[in-house]
Design goal:
Blueprint: E1 4-9, H1 17-24, E2 26-29, E3 33-41, H2 46-49, E4 52-59, E5 62-69, E6 74-80, H3 93-103, E7 109-124, E8 130-143, E9 151-152, E10 155-161, H4 166-179, E11 182-183, H5 188-195, H6 219-243, H7 247-266, H8 273-309, H9 312-315, H10 319-340, H11 343-357, H12 373-397, H13 402-426, H14 432-472, H15 478-500, H16 502-509, H17 512-523
Antiparallel strand pairs: 1-10, 1-11, 2-7, 3-4, 3-7, 4-5, 5-6, 7-8, 8-9, 8-10
Length: about 525
């Protein structure tokens, strides 16, 4: 890989740069070129977190997609007829698969428009061969949804070395830093968003609680911090949920609600009991409100996989199912938005925010309110872990009875979710090198249990959808119902494989070394 470096050029030195370069080096300046580009990423910055950025520049042939490392080095460029959005429209299979592995089901969003002016300066040797390329880049940025005047960005010098000329590259880099330039520690997306004063910056959002709890913090205050973080996640996702242009907004909103309900029941006796009953009921209502739309979102996301399960000759028979799901999802989404527009939801958010921001007068009466949070966390996680172990061992005893086995697997899935949420709430209290392997092991078990449950839910839902389709469209083709029946059979087989695979996953989770790790971390602290 050829050496590269980005340097910031102070504004007061810009007028002297040409003279400095021409005095100290043999140079050749290319004509200035200008172009426009839009920078894209997901709402939760998945490309940025993967060390990359994606920009699209409009041109007569459509758009030039440029997938780059954060230092500006090009990974891949391709002409496309449309701007980024849904990756399914991307014609290059390799690029689509690479981006899809990072973006997954999220939609690419346009974050900022940039107008660039760039001059290329070639640093030459005595034989007038180019040894280093120096790109002097200036730009103005504007938010994609804004009509405000573009704001200037810092000038950047991008140095690109050539094979066999490492010494020339390092000499130029050293000279420019002596001149007054400094290494750039940001990237085009950061610079553009800072220039426009954006309230969002790359990496500022994660769907998981981002907490830094102190071990001695009173449990009541720690619980407030946890709940405030979850409320923030809900509210940040609500606008996107309402727009319904990316199913992950609803997913993250719904998970934050579910975590809130779990924290209310798992972090015990830190708040007065009287108001908590009301909040438990209201968050249960909110969870129910979001459920139908999320279920349909999941089915729509799985339609591609469903078609792949069937032979090519009959995959198109599922098209009426897809149309049915789209129409049904839109109806349920309207009901969801109506619920969010209701006075009940507004009062829940207002009263919950007020509760978390004030100190209830009788909080001292709560038995665990003043306990150090590390003590409560250890106690709760260790208790949940032992419950998971006990229920898992019971499942192995009833494995010969498929019905009892299925019920027990469902119950264990819920207990594993409680354990996972509790670990996530208190994760910052423990050394990452000790707790991360435990979370990874638990996740493998959860994947098995979650898949088992999902296959059952999908089977039941598909059977119900078949009845609805028959009732709503008398001219439904028999081929569609037959294709749905084949899907149900595939899902039944997949569910059985997960059931049979449970023992291996569970025994891996409770292996002696793993059990001892849980015991050392939570039972003896």
């Amino acid at each position: 890989m050829m050496p590269s470096l980005e340097l910031k050029l102070p504004t007061d030195l810009a007028r002297d740069l040409e003279t400095f370069l021409e005095t100290n080096f043999q140079v050749f300046w290319e004509p200035e070129r200008t172009w426009r580009a839009t920078l894209y990423d997901t709402f939760d910055w998945r490309l940025y977190k993967a060390g990359t950025l994606l920009q699209a520049s409009p041109a007569r042939r459509g758009f030039l997609w440029s997938w780059q490392r954060l230092d500006g080095a090009i990974r891949q460029e391709i002409w496309q007829p449309s701007a980024p959005g849904l990756l399914s429209s991307l014609q290059d299979d390799t690029l689509r698969q690479e981006l899809q592995s990072i973006v997954a089901m999220r939609r690419l969003l346009p974050w900022v428009d940039i107008s660039y002016q760039e001059r290329l300066c070639r640093i030459l040797d005595d034989e007038t061969k180019t040894t280093v390329r120096l790109y002097w880049q200036c730009g103005q940025a504007r938010a994609c949804d804004s009509t405000a005047e573009p704001q200037p960005m810092p000038s950047i010098l991008r140095l690109r070395g050539l094979r066999g000329y490492d010494k020339a590259f390092h000499n130029l880099a050293k000279s420019l830093q002596t001149f007054g330039c400094s290494p750039s520690e940001d990237n085009p997306l950061q610079r553009a968003l800072l220039a426009i004063g954006s309230p969002r910056l790359p990496g500022d959002y994660s769907s998981k609680p981002q907490l830094h709890l102190e071990a001695t913090l009173p449990a009541a205050e720690a619980a407030r911090q946890i709940h405030r973080s979850l409320l923030d996640t809900m509210l940040r996702n609500e606008p996107g949920l309402r727009r319904d242009d990316d199913s992950e907004f609803l997913h993250d909103f719904r998970v934050a609600v579910r975590r809130t309900r779990s924290a209310l029941s798992q972090i015990k006796k830190v708040f007065p009991e009287e108001p908590l009953g009301h909040f438990r009921g209201e968050f249960s209502w909110l969870g129910s409100l979001t459920g139908p739309t999320r279920d349909l979102d999941v089915f729509l996301l799985k339609m591609v996989d469903y078609r792949r399960l069937l032979p090519d000759a009959v995959a198109a028979d599922l098209d009426p199912l897809g149309q049915f799901l789209i129409a049904k999802q839109r109806r349920e989404h309207r009901k969801l938005v109506a619920g969010l527009d209701s006075e009940r939801y507004a009062q829940l958010i207002e009263s919950w925010r007020h509760f978390l921001g004030t100190d209830p007068g009788d909080e001292a009466a709560a038995a665990n309110a003043q306990r150090p949070i590390i003590s409560l966390a250890n106690e709760r996680i260790w208790k949940l872990f032992r419950r998971v172990v006990k229920e898992g061992r019971h499942i192995l005893e009833v494995a010969s009875d498929p019905q009892a086995h299925a019920i027990a697997l469902h119950d264990l899935r819920i207990e594993c979710k409680k354990l996972r949420y509790s670990i996530e709430f208190f994760r910052s209290l423990y050394p990452p090198r000790q707790i991360d392997p435990l979370v990874k092991s638990l996740k493998k078990l959860q994947d098995n249990l979650g898949n088992f449950n999902d296959y059952e839910v999908q089977r039941d839902k598909l059977s119900g959808f078949a009845v609805e389709i028959l009732q709503g469209a008398k001219d439904t083709e028999a081929s569609t119902l037959l294709a749905m029946g084949r899907l149900v059979a595939f899902l039944a087989d997949a569910q059985e494989k997960e059931r049979l695979g449970f023992e291996a996953r569970f025994m891996e989770f409770i292996a002696d070394a793993r059990y001892q790790q849980f015991e050392r971390l939570f039972a003896t602290r």
